[in-house]
Amino acid sequence: MKIQPRNKRELMAAALGRIECDFAVTNCRYLNLFTGEEYPATVYIHDGFVVHVEPNPKSAPEKAKQVVDAGGRYILPGLIDAHVHIESSLMTPPVFASAVVPHGVTCVITDPHEIGNVLGEEAVVYMHDAGSDLPMYQFIDIPSCVPSVPGLEEAGASFDASVIDRLAKLPHVIGLAEVMDFLGVVDGEDRMMEIIDAAERNGLYLQGHLPAGFGRLVSAYRIGGPLTCHETGRPGEALDKLRAGMYVDARESSMCYNLPTIWNDVKDLPWRDRLSLCTDDREADDILANGQLDLVLRNIIKLGMDPIEAIRAATLHPAQEAGLENLGAVAPGYVANFLLVDDLEQFTVHAVYFEGREVAREGRLLTAIPRRQFAVEQKNSVNAPDLTLEDFRLRAPAGCGDRVRINVLTYGDYTSLTRIESEELPVKDGFVDISGDDELCFAMVVNRYGTGNRTFGLVRGFGLARGADGSTISHDCHNLTLVFRDPESALAVYNQLRSVGGGICAAENGKVVCTLALPVGGLMSADPAEQTAAAATAMKQALRELGLEMTNPLLRIATLALPVVPAAKFTDLGLVDVMKKAFVPIFPEN
Amino acid sequence: MKIQPRNKRELMAAALGRIECDFAVTNCRYLNLFTGEEYPATVYIHDGFVVHVEPNPKSAPEKAKQVVDAGGRYILPGLIDAHVHIESSLMTPPVFASAVVPHGVTCVITDPHEIGNVLGEEAVVYMHDAGSDLPMYQFIDIPSCVPSVPGLEEAGASFDASVIDRLAKLPHVIGLAEVMDFLGVVDGEDRMMEIIDAAERNGLYLQGHLPAGFGRLVSAYRIGGPLTCHETGRPGEALDKLRAGMYVDARESSMCYNLPTIWNDVKDLPWRDRLSLCTDDREADDILANGQLDLVLRNIIKLGMDPIEAIRAATLHPAQEAGLENLGAVAPGYVANFLLVDDLEQFTVHAVYFEGREVAREGRLLTAIPRRQFAVEQKNSVNAPDLTLEDFRLRAPAGCGDRVRINVLTYGDYTSLTRIESEELPVKDGFVDISGDDELCFAMVVNRYGTGNRTFGLVRGFGLARGADGSTISHDCHNLTLVFRDPESALAVYNQLRSVGGGICAAENGKVVCTLALPVGGLMSADPAEQTAAAATAMKQALRELGLEMTNPLLRIATLALPVVPAAKFTDLGLVDVMKKAFVPIFPEN
After folding, report:
1. Position A417 pLDDT exceeds 90
2. Chain B residue nearest residue A328, CA to CA
3. Which one of A10, A12, A30, A53 makes the best mutation probe of the B interface by having the most chain B beta carbons within 10 Å?
């Protein structure tokens, strides 16, 4: 993918000094990301592109209509996030742009996997279109695994090779997004082989996803096609992947802090050309308070990476892995997306330029992002049935007496890893009674795509002490998922989520106490970033008050139904033994 | 361009150790070109691909049908020549392969520019087809400038954007070859803009050609599209190109030794990721005696480059610049083109593997290259008119008396740079008489594509003391070019070249003394490499005996008609002032 100029002849004439260019940036410290040098430079910009960089200029700029004095600051390429789900920010693409551009992020490679699972092909088109004509680039990698694990859950869509063929024609589509079904790849399953073939046929690069990938597994996966991986969390993993020629997209999301482990792996290597930075999932409040890719950059510099190399990992390397030919450097022919930065360690972004236009300064957006209408944003994506209070009481099998044996999804301490434990619990009036055990909650997953599927069981160690927590963010099918102590609160949350078109909701004593409405696909809000950030913060507080004391209580429920994370999950189709890819009855033969 | 395996599932199964792979290479020193590390490794090969590299193996290979003991040697990727004209070797593609494979060259990126000018599109198809099914890859970049300078000369063909569109469909076509008309590019001339657009539309990378390229010219050319340049000979030039993000293909041809200058430019840079090696033009005798890309590699190591980085510049970097996704490394998913090498400084190639098969050992080819028939090889490309002795006497304009003013193409000392000098010379019996001046020769360029064009003039300082030198290798249109002292020798050479279908020929006293027959397009021979090398050596000796005392007398005549090299040239259309792109009369108004 190369961004084509409006008039190449004019750019060349400006480069040669035959015509005046739009402006020149003087008095800046220039880092050459190709050679590793630092020198003073004058950078000439015309019609959205860098046309010439004059090193060690001996005189004032020539042939420039205007001069911008950088005041001795660094001039750097705009940051490029190698892998992000915009949905995870809780903001629609234009709102996301308004939040990240002031942080110096002028390009993201985004995987609309979440809304793709909810609303299918049209949602990818929506993310593409809503992500266009903004003061940043939002390139699209087509979701590769919709649904994540066919047969174990039902999403709103299913993508096969023909979908890839169609979506690949969209102008900002550049890759196939994180190929999560890595077992499907290395086992050569038809679905993944066909999808990968379609992607390669359409000239897309293949983004990978290989958690706990080492040795022969990395080799096999690499042969399968994926070039990159952002799921690198264990010691030695980054080394194995880099040695095999993969790009390692070092991640710092709102949940996962992989940098220290990765840096420890790679810090002594002579070359780290294939190390990139990414955020994967960061929420609105976290972005506004702490930053986006700029935070990841600051953190890897703190760990000890040379700043110029860190900047390369946040600009040129992501561009190279994604095949973005003229992004990621301040060099002739490259799009004039650049930053003026006070210092590299603090990485304080003074000004952000996109396509040669100043779009943010001192953390403030300078450009209005027009509010456009999209059909997908108006669509209610929550198609779940009417339920009554009765439906939220867990009926024990007939004839089981006053005790019942039940398979309980059980959390380990402080981790999201789960297992299935068989327990014997009391039955009262024909219903399972958890009132005497503080660590137990009811859990329900309701298909929200009109299938009528519903799973109802028990979870131990989730952390909810009272009331109900419900969410339509529930990876990866995003069915309406509830965890609750009492049916009244569950019903209140359920009805509230249906009425606002999805989001996250908490209730206590049968009354809603907080709602984070995410009506776009049940995942995002089109409200201003500050508003969504404030709502997310309020929601986290509300959930903490119900007993969810982990760092990020918002996302505790979001992985309850994710059957690619070991070892036990609920989906809309039942209780899943993840490692066996099989269902386990809630009530075993009693 | 990604080389696809026959059965990806099987490769993945072999990587995982689920099935036995074809063989494993043990006891080798492995250089990781991604990380810069060296460690012992076992390399697993299956069905022509590397499936797994086990670092620091603690046990004997597992799941391998055979084991190859590398005897403690280095295992390295096969060398990749970033830019070469196979025609310049004087050998057809299969013969070229037989000569270079034992040197460890398993891939070249070739520009069939010479034969393209002679025989057009069908010649590119010929080079493509003849370069397929060999124990090496010969990828094709489509000649971009056929003819080099429209209007100043007439070639056998003319390529426009529609030719690019058609040729881009050939499976081994990967790029647009050296865009020589750099003024046409930066001036935005229609021809070059359309050709570049066609190349980009077809997903081809753009190979450049920018001699004496500095500063703003590099910027403008880079904006125009070309990514690489192998014409880097002056101090500071490599630095300017690398800084602008271009790949510098450091060249050592049989004529040009650019390495010392380039190395001096780049040796202190922190990063040299975009430095590649290439040969451009090397003749059969030079290849057999001294080597091909292996020689360039040895020489840059001698200059001081770290061997592992030099190897990267001869393997992974050329692959990256040309978009060859799974060539240039010994890594999972990469084609099993690799070498076993005794030591890095001497670079003694012990064994060469291509697609997992040993194809050369200790400098000897182990595989037969079948002799195939191609229509182009049978075609007589020399369509020049019958001429008589009279035609080789230079008639002075009528009425000029016994002296005539004439524009003489004049060589500087020891260089191929030329200028036009006006001289007054004696006329005898109506013909220009050079018998009294040892430094003058007649020069004639005869169009060999049936147009009837012919230019006849004088050259000073060429170096020929007696007899005649003639060649159908005459860049870039390859018209039949003669330099001679006496008409009898000229006629003998002319008729000999017509009768053998082209090549190089020397005569003295009216008799042919040596012929290097190159009947394939008048440029190449399908004879065995040793035979062509011996004939080239003999030809050089014969020309030396006629007074051509430079290092390579073979190519002295080959640039006489090349109107892109300053400042004066003969073409079939006349005497050219190169800088003015205009013709100058041989005889000014007398």
Report:
1. no
2. B245
3. A12
